[in-house]
Amino acid sequence: MSAASYLDFAITDWQAIRHLPWGLISRFGESVLLLPCALGICGWLRYRAADACVARWLLPFSAAASLVLASKVAYMGWGIGSAKLNFTGISGHSMMAASVLPVLAFVGTPARWPKLSVAAAVAAMSLAILVGVSRLALHAHSVSEVAVGLVLGFGVSVPFMRRGMPRSPAPLVGAALAIAVLMAMPVTGIGGASQRLVEIIATYLSGRDRPYQRGEWTFAETPASCPRPACRREETPSGVEAKGGRHGLGSNPQREQPAKSLSMATGLFRQRIHSRRTRNPFPGMPSCGAPRDQSRQGFASRAPTP
């Protein structure tokens, strides 16, 4: 068992974390919720005339978001990934949580309390890590995908949090209100809106009728042994769960091979039974598949002579 598969199995089978509300924790990494917060941070910094901080925040964040989108489109559209690492695209939830939440907590604390700012940033980083663990507990991503997303997100947020930048509780309060309103909206399907949009982009660019599913690879690799099928909960374009993979609908060729082998074995077994029934081991006796008149001729030929 590889290291990534062992971590998948250990995290998803740990009894102590099964009862946590992973669905609610995972929503703190939704792009629909955190992208407005990121734009709000840029607007507030621009309002405080901190143009250098805006560029230092917006450019790395845009690059990280583009890299996440490119990795997902590459796999969904062309099947480019790693079967050994079980990697099908960077976790967007992990990247968004690790890049936005610490910055939001750091900027939202008063500058006259530097220790409180550091504590708030550390707490937000812990929440981001918890969001990454929730993606594993929900079988939405593998360990490699979550790890790359967290490293990429922290690479955006940690260098940005410096002394001397404008800070105020206003952006934190505004972001909290925006998240509360979006999470309380009685609209279904908000959580998977970004995922469905990526699927539409990938299928349009690649010309496929459906996106690649987890387990389908363009380049033949030896997949890592996994005791449990990871990443089973993702919404398809029609809103139905794809229990065999992450992306879209369609059958899996690897799952069709056992069915084909079983049908071939059944056909060979029927042919062998039929050949045994029609074969006559005794030349003088009538066979099971012989016509009735031939059977009578066989008995007549064996009739004893007076």
Compact summary:
The protein has about 300 residues and is mainly alpha-helical. It has helices spanning about 5-10, 20-25, 30-45, 50-80, 90-105, 115-135, 145-160, 170-185, 195-205, 255-280, 290-300.
Topology of this protein?
Elements: H1 3-12, H2 22-26, H3 31-47, H4 51-78, H5 92-107, H6 114-137, H7 143-160, H8 169-184, H9 193-206, H10 253-278, H11 292-301
What does this structure look like?
Helix content is 60%, strand content 0%. It is mostly helical. The radius of gyration is 31 Å and the shape is elongated. Keywords: Membrane, Transmembrane, Transmembrane helix. It holds the Pfam family PAP2. InterPro entries: PAP2/HPO (IPR000326), PAP2/HPO_sf (IPR036938).
Uncertain segments are 12-16, 222-252, 288-301
Major sheet description:
none
DSSP helix count? 11
Element pattern in H and E: HHHHHHHHHHH
How would the global form be characterised? elongated
Give the distance, in angstroms, between the N- and C-terminal Cα atoms: 81 Å
Protein name: Phosphatidic acid phosphatase type 2/haloperoxidase domain-containing protein
Keywords: Membrane, Transmembrane, Transmembrane helix
Region (Disordered): 223-306
Domain Phosphatidic acid phosphatase type 2/haloperoxidase: 34-161
